[in-house]
Write a structure and sequence with these properties.
Layout (H helix, E strand, L loop, with lengths): L4 E4 L2 E4 L4 H13 L4 E5 L6 H14 L3 E5 L6 H4 E3 L4 H11 L4 H15 L5 E7 L2 H4 L4 H13 L7 E8 L5 H5 L4 E5 L5 H8 L9 H8 L3 H9 L4 H11 L2 H7 L1 H9 L3 H4 L5 H9 L3 E3 L25 E3 L2 H15 L1
Parallel strand pairs: 3-7, 3-8, 4-6, 6-7
Antiparallel strand pairs: 1-2, 4-5, 9-10
Helix pairs in contact: 1-2, 4-5, 5-7, 12-17, 13-17, 14-17
Amino acid sequence: MRRVKLRLADLDVEFADRDTALRQVEEFAERGTYPVYVIYGPEGCGKTALFRQAKAILEEHGYIVIYFSPMEKEFEYRLSVSDDAKELVKPVLEVLLGENGAKFVERAIELASRVMRYRERVAVLADDIFQAVGLERAEIYVKMLLNLIEYPSAPIERVVVLVGSSEGTTRVRVGRHSWALLRGMWNMSRDGFRELYEQISGEKPSFDEVWRWTGGNPRYLAELYKAEWDVEVVVKGLVRRKGLDKLAKKWRQGLERAVEDPDYLWDEYPRTEGLIQELTELNLLSETGYRDTYLWIDQPPPVDKELGIGEKYAWQTPLHREAVRRILREIGS
């Protein structure tokens, strides 16, 4: 299997780890998907990298793949169509690339429908579309993608439709319908993350130290690298970007308990319902309660209180938890 090249900050790296997830993608290739698979996971956990590797796998299995990510700024990552179909959709591509937001997503789905008229195996990989279309409309676009499977524009052998999202707040909206199967995805395993870490040359902290801060999250490995391994810079960036001062003033007591043990949020439910909602909306917290392997892409996270991973809830990375801890200290001093 060809491993794709990816960008990590300003570095070229090779796709690493995720052997279980890659086998799952091969299973999708062999039988198609029904209904739509929506993959949720922490921001930066590697969903986009997996989708780009999945594109290569699906093409090896004879699929025409339409990959799109409306939030990407770079042209080559916003929309990618398998080489064998580019001439077929060239007129549509030229129009589509001038669109943004919901219109871009709608055009990309139309493009996939067009390809189905000419090819027997088609895959659609829709990455981080909910933020582009509006979280309140997430389920509508899942239904549009399901229509590609149920009502293809021409007879077709197999269809694969995968959607990736870090927007945990849409899980309930999407999950209340039978239009999609929800699957979790977590940060990289320790061994797999080591493979990625070792592709970064030059002076750097020990692997154990980087693991303790990132919990295996590739994006925050990149953030640390860009900050010249200064944890303070990354933590302060999280505090500012997510507006944690307001959150800490509103939920101080609950947060003080949650940074010590995220399962406090479950133990005290429903009293903590509002706090859970806000932490989820800010992409600080993820639900991890169901660990049956079939409910996950790759492997579910093991309980690890040192990394902030509880039985029911987990901080998306130790850096996220540390950012909350720091702002609590500041407002308490």
